[in-house]
Amino acid sequence: MARVASTLAFAALAVAAPLDARHGSGHTQLLAPDGPTEYQISYGPRPYYIVQNMTEGPLKDKLMSCENGPFSVSGWSIGHRGGGTLQIPEESAQSEEAGARMGAGVLECDVAFTNDLQLVCRHSLCDLHTTTDILLRPELAAKCTTPFTPANETSDATALCCTSDITHDEFMSLCSKMDGSNSSATTPEDYQHGVASFRTELYDTCATPLSLDTFIDLVDALPGYRNFTPELKTPPADVPMPFNGYTQEQYARDVINAFINKGIAAERVWPQSFLPADIFQWIKEFPEFGAQAVYLDEEGETPETFETAVARLPSLKAQGVNIIAPPFNYLLTYGDENNDTIVPSSYATTAKAAGLDIITWSFERSGPLDRVEATEDYYYNTFAQAVSYDGQLYEVLDILANEVGVVAMFSDWSATVGYFANCFGLTGPVGGSYLNK
């Protein structure tokens, strides 16, 4: 497949944003509303489809009133895996650019490491077999932790390919593709498919992978002054740490140093991790970065562990954590005995009472809402009976924004969140404001 060129021509438009806005403090100097000579924020039809699908009422009226803008970049909108992931291969230059075009003020790179200990953008260290064309490259497929095995009468097709199996240069030679695999495949070519039905393979035409360095360069060159959120990926059991002497501590250190080496101010970076030790290390070693580190919390997956996760929130704040980031199902629950309404959960109210800011994830990862109860979709599992049509996407977002009070939202299609943020004047957290909180 021929590589689709990364549209770094966006960089040529960077003159629309003053240099002091792109390199200054915080993110309050985000791009102003669109003008004829400025970078055009474009939401496409999806936000309007959702609004038109809503039940009549004040929220719909408010969102309808914003249909003609003006629209601007918002730091409340975080591009999950780039922000174009609903339709465009994740962690690719094209997904980052799509999220930016849809107004995301913060863009994400999930940081993994290669065999030669270089940092690259990939949602998991061991997902190359489903998110790239590595199995179509015999010389690289041979290096996979588990080579491709075709399906047979008793077993599904299998493979396991990790960033740590190959070098940086080999990783950068791959084509990124939509995440998916065909468990019935008998050939590597057949295994490339299996994308979720609510996504698309329309843009699955060899998207450009990113290293952490090229991600930083791309985002820094985008008009409108964007911020960064690198997630330090926890290595799976298939990549035991230390890896050839490379420790988790050095891995965490290298992520922050990549931004320091590029001259990116700490207030523009929102580092994330699921491991408390990573967060506490950043707080200690890089206090300006650590002050706005985002602790990703998924410790409340059962009723028992949920209560434990809620109870420990005040202690996390006492240890210097300022931002907690659970999945949004942790923040919402049923509000009546008939399961018809949605209200903030005990997690949401406890986090706010403890003085923690809340960022949450991930909107637009679930497909149509009329399917989420039947499919036991993860993100809606605490209130699935209360939603059944797509207009309720903005009802859910309204509760998260205006009742829970989340300070930013990750989304796989940045237009949906960006439209809402613009309509309600949501600008996101202010970089540099957390250091002495």
UniProtKB/TrEMBL annotation:
It comes from Knufia fluminis. The keyword Transmembrane helix does not apply. This is glycerophosphodiester phosphodiesterase. SUPFAM superfamilies: PLC-like phosphodiesterases. Keywords: Glycerol metabolism, Hydrolase, Signal. It holds the Pfam family GDPD. PANTHER family: GLYCEROPHOSPHODIESTER PHOSPHODIESTERASE GDPD5-RELATED, GLYCEROPHOSPHORYL DIESTER PHOSPHODIESTERASE. Belongs to the glycerophosphoryl diester phosphodiesterase family. Residues 1-16 form the signal peptide. It catalyses: a sn-glycero-3-phosphodiester + H2O = an alcohol + sn-glycerol 3-phosphate + H(+). One of its GO terms (biological process) is lipid metabolic process. InterPro entries: GP_PDE_dom, PLC-like_Pdiesterase_TIM-brl. Its EC number is 3.1.4.46. Residues 80-188 form the GP-PDE domain.
